[in-house]
Design brief:
By secondary structure, the chain is mostly helical. It is built from 14 helices and two strands, in the order αααααααααααααββα. It has a two-stranded antiparallel sheet with strand order 1-2.
Amino acid sequence: MITERQSRFRQAYLQQISPWYHGLLHVGVMYAAGIAAIVWCVGQLRDPSWEWLLILPIAIAGNFVEWGMHMHIMHRLKDVFALRAIFDRHTRQHHQYFTDNDFTIHSVKEFRIVFFPWRVLIVLVIASALFGGLAAWVLGPDAGYMFPITMIGHYLVYETFHFCCHVPENRFVRSMPLINTIRRHHSAHHNMGVMMHINMNLTLPIADWALGTSDLDRSLLGHIFNGYDTRHQKPALRQVMEKYRHAKIESERVTLEGPTLDAEDMQALAEAGRVVPV
C-alpha cells in the first residue's frame, strides 16, 4: 500500500509537470527516431556475414554499461552538471515516485517519470557513431554499423522493459518471459532499503548476476527465466526489504538522497553480496 510520504511526493511532482508536456509525443518521437536510425543503418550494410556476430559482445558489453550507469551515475551523486541532473531525475525523483509499495503509473502524463528525455537518445546515437566509426576503420564498414544497430536497439529494449515494469499488473507482463523476470527484478530494486545497491539491470540481469548485486541466489539461466518467483530471494535481503516497506521507517530513515542504513542493514547487504559504497 502506498505511504503518505510517497503519495505527497506524487501529487507535488504531477503538479509541476508542464501543461505542454504530452506523454505520447515524448514516447512516439523517441521510438520513431530510434527505429528510423536502426533501419537506416541496416540499409547501409553492404554484404554482412560474420559481422552479425558482433551484436552479441556489443549487447553483453552494453548490459554491463547499463549496470554501471545505473549504479555509479543514477544512484551515486557526482557533483558535475549533467551527472548531477541524472542523479536528481532518478534517485531524487523516480525512486521517490515509485517504491515497491506502489510502482505503477495510471496516466499518460506519468510517462515523464518513466522514460528518459530525448537528449539521452541523442547522446547514445553520437556515442554509437564514434564506436562504429572506430570499428569501421579497423574491421570494415559493415562491422561499424553493428554498433549503432545494437546500441540503439538495446536502448529501445531498455525503455520498453522499464515501461512494462511500471504499468499496472496485467496478463502480458505477468506471463511474458523476460518481461516478467525484469518486472519482479525491478520491483525489488525499488524497495527503499536496497535501491542503492541491488538489481541494477533493466534488460537482462546478467551484470547483476555476474557482479553479485542481484537479490536472487540462482544460476544465470535461473535469473533470466525467473519470472515472478521469489523462492530464491536471499534471506538477508528479505528482512531489510520488509523493514523499509513500513511507512514509519520510510518517513524516519529515507530522504531524497536515499535510505539511511544502519549497521544491521549494511551487514545484511554484505551477506547478500557485493556492496558498492555510496
